[in-house]
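Re: beginner question about structure tokens

> Can someone show what the tokenized structure looks like for a real chain? I only ever see the sequence side.

Sure, here's an example I had lying around. Input first:
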Amino acid sequence: MEVKIRVWDKDRYEMLYKTLPDMELLNSLNKDFTMRYVETNLQKHDIYEGDIVEASIVKTGNKIKGIVVWQEDKERFTLLLSESRKAEVFPELIVWKTAIVLGNKYENPDLLAQFR
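And the corresponding structure tokens:
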């Protein structure tokens, strides 16, 4: 199974997009700078781990903003609403298809201030 990833090149200050042949290779990469693919939204933008998004909650439609994170122990993506409090939203409550990508934690570090 192919795996789409994005890698932050801190030396060139740019994002690189790759497709890996399998998960084995993904596990051998530097996790600090490697971001897994989540889904493609309705605007045809790929959503990756590390993205800062505005998403809707299932049923209520309420909008929330958060950082997309991979929970290794639960093997799932979720939205982190606050780094200091570790507040998160259960992934089954998030409508990923309508999420709007506002930026990401590497190219737009200024957006992180609202999540501390």
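Each token stands for a local structural state, so reading them left to right follows the chain. The chain has one domain: 3-115.
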